[in-house]
Task: structure prediction
Amino acid sequence: MVNESAQGAAGVMCPGCGGSSVRTVEQARAERKAGEKADWRSGGKPERGSLADRLAVSPGATDSFDSVMHFLEGMVFTGLGVGLAYTGVQQDKPLYTIGGVLLAVLLFVGTIVVIRGEARERVVVPRGELLAERLWRAGYYCSGCESVFCPDGSQWQGTLTPEQFKKLMWTEAGYADRLAHDDKAKEATVPAEALSRTGGPHRHV
Ligand SMILES: [Zn+2]
Result:
């Protein structure tokens, strides 16, 4: 029997498998993070399906620099539409003119929508992160059966899969709609009995 990770989690046993190879979610995530290319806090996102991704506290927000780049890219493509329209006027080709104008308008509007969404994200995500982090800090991860649990049951009861845990955190934080379409957590359902205790987070999962 190898007790590989008793440090920092002395006396805590997994209610799922009874194992003691448990760490706080914070530790579990940090340990795996070392081998990854980018730190999720600095704009990079952990690889899809990695433990760090499965336990991610938030989607992270697009930073201002990226938004400026997206705006410039949008304007370059809008410029191409304008150029096409201009060519249409010069060469008396109405189809070019109409197509170019439509393209320019669509790209311009599309760019503004994206930029506004990113700006909203920079407000919504940090606010929700505070709520998600409360769950995150209360969580323990068992590497024996890959489950997440809250030792004192104050936030939820029993064990959750990493996907259910992520769904719970992101729902609590108000950005569950930001789960990527290929993220398994998107389809996860948090069992009602896990949330039956009062005093924990709001129940609307
Ligand atoms: Zn376990």
